[in-house]
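Attaching the record inline, Q. Sequence:
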Amino acid sequence: MSILYKTIRKAEPGVAGGGQYKYYAGIVREREASLRDIVKEISSRSTVTTADAFAVIENFLELVPKFLRNGRNVNLGQLGRFKVNLKSKGHESPKEVGNYSIIGSKVSFLPSLEMKDELMTIRYNKVAGQEQDFDEEAA
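Structure, as predicted:
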């Protein structure tokens, strides 16, 4: 399998009227893989029933946020690691830092080296017949 991409025209950011257009590669997004799709795949590749696979994933979906809420990183081995990062206001002295300093948080995912290596093998194919649309716009 490969990832299909298309040409996308974008204006210069921050320039009134758009400025000069440039062309970039952008992924053609296919239908999203849903939880049900993943569960069906798991079930078809193993002796686990669809109901059992759903039960395990539901537990997983409850446990990951629980560990993150408790300040723990969640290491999923060959998949990667989840962790919580804080966004905070800066202060002049350490004594000024308190709960009120925290503006928000976000969960980040860092893929494992194995996952990164696997993604390095992706092949890309350009969607055919798209250049004519942009050539006509430029003329």
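The helical segments are 35-45, 50-69, 113-119, 131-138. Residues 50-69 form the longest helix (20 residues).

More tomorrow.
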